Amino acid sequence: MTDGERDVLQFDGYELDLSTGELRGRGMRVSLQPQPFKILALLAGRSGQALTRDEIRLELWGNQTFVDFEGSLNFCIRQIRKALNEDARRPRYIETLHRRGYRFLVPVRRICSAASASRDLSHKDGLSRPMTVAVLPLSELNCPSQARSVGEGLAELLITYLSTNRSVRVASRTSTMKYRYSEKSLSKIGMELGVERVLEGAVMHSGNRVRIAARLIDTSTDRNEWAGCYESEMQDWLKLQDHLVSSIIRDTAFYFAPRPQEITPDPQDRLLMTSQSIA
User: What residue ranges of the chain are covered by domains with CATH 3.40.50.10610?
Assistant: First the structure.
């Protein structure tokens, strides 16, 4: 793809490629989930303007209702700051307007072709229909009550934050709770819930550490598409859950967003394994 065919926002050494949904910093791709990317594109596309939280909600989520919109937006802003290596106490790119919204602070240059110039920044590139997914309650293996609360909170947060992605439709927590101790196959559960993917996991405790093992299953084949294992010290529970949710959503984002054809996984080699220790 040549520069003349691209739709790109450039600022301070970074590029937001609106055509592919990628953020690059000084030539290297920077990991950023689809919904935070859209929020960053919206803010950068209106550099210098104050955008209220309600304006952001209407632009990206329309009239959809979420369990916790405020928490979801705050989560997305934290992910953007992390991607841009920004300290919220000394913002370089995103100014927080107390109780109002946000403003992008640096100049932005837009490069786009005539064919893409009229594209809305929140356009759903190439999506014909949303992916459907269910997050099952996490099972507890040899866990004290504190570790169980991490698992319960993690499932709730995963549902909430996945729901902020307009390319995904997530089964409600109420509909998935009945499968907490179910012995049904995941393909059967997927059929009953009417979803294409199931995200399941387990919480394990060892000493002063907690481990989360998670899998993303294609319900049509009952095969793993992705598996991840995350460990951390059991200290700050809210911080731990936030780290785990961020890591899992980031690592599964490929399967919930449109990608260029050339990087689509081979059907014979679909399983991606992620292992990570979170300090």
Answer: 131-278
